[in-house]
């Protein structure tokens, strides 16, 4: 099987970081290695030319890879070979999706929020 061209986009929190872009994918390329190449390219690229900004992964980043088909999208494993998946689903479109989870400090706990509000109301020295 020779190299194949795939259209790839990267979305971060619902917005495109990389609009649809055609890339050549060799026979042994996995979704993970393709994603690594895209991240490196985003860091080396001039911001705003192809990528909206460099892609930075954090410990709290949730990422998934989808092959877009005529009937919708199919999530695929990072270790699968890109060409095999594209042939299996008769597709040439790949969407890489990133979302950032809340860190523990950003999560709100209803109990602690109520307790803090009560402390604020019951403390005569607090300013309202």
Structural class: alpha+beta
Summed up, the helix count is: 3
Q: Work out the radius of gyration.
A: 21 Å
Question: Spatial order of the strands in the main sheet?
Answer: 2-1-5-3-4
Count of individual beta strands:
5
- Average pLDDT rating: 84
Molecular shape: globular
Say what the CATH topology is: Ubiquitin-like (UB roll)
> What is the CATH superfamily?
Phosphatidylinositol 3-kinase Catalytic Subunit, Chain A, domain 1
Main beta-sheet strand count, sense and barrel state: 5 strands, mixed
What is the name of the CATH class? Alpha Beta
Q: What series of H and E elements makes up the topology?
A: EEHEEHEH
**Helix proportion:** 25-40%
Uncertain runs are 103-107
Strand content: 25-35%
Roughly how many Å apart are the termini?
Answer: 70 Å
Taken together, the total number of domains comes to 1
Could you characterize what this model shows?
It is a single chain. With 128 residues, the chain is α+β, with helices and mostly antiparallel strands. It has one domain: Roll (Ubiquitin-like (UB roll)). 27% of the residues lie in helices and 33% in strands. The protein has helices spanning 31-44, 82-88, 110-122; strands at residues 4-12, 15-25, 61-69, 72-76, 93-100. A five-stranded mixed β-sheet has the order 2-1-5-3-4, covered by helices on one side. Strand 1 and strand 2 (15-25) form a beta hairpin. The chain is globular. It starts with a strand and ends in a 6-residue tail after the last helix. The model is unreliable at 103-107 (pLDDT under 50).
């Amino acid at each position: 099987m020779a190299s194949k061209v795939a259209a790839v986009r990267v979305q971060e929190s619902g917005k495109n970081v990389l609009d649809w872009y055609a890339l050549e994918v060799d026979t042994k390329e996995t979704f993970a290695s393709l994603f690594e190449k895209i991240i490196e390219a985003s860091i080396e690229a001039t911001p705003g030319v192809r990528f909206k900004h460099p892609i930075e992964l954090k410990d709290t980043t949730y990422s998934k890879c989808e092959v877009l088909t005529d009937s919708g999208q199919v999530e695929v494993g990072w270790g699968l070979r890109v060409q095999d998946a594209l042939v299996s689903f008769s597709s040439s479109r790949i969407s890489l999706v990133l979302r950032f989870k809340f860190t523990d400090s950003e999560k709100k706990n209803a109990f602690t929020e109520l307790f803090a509000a009560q402390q604020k109301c019951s403390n005569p020295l607090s300013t309202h």
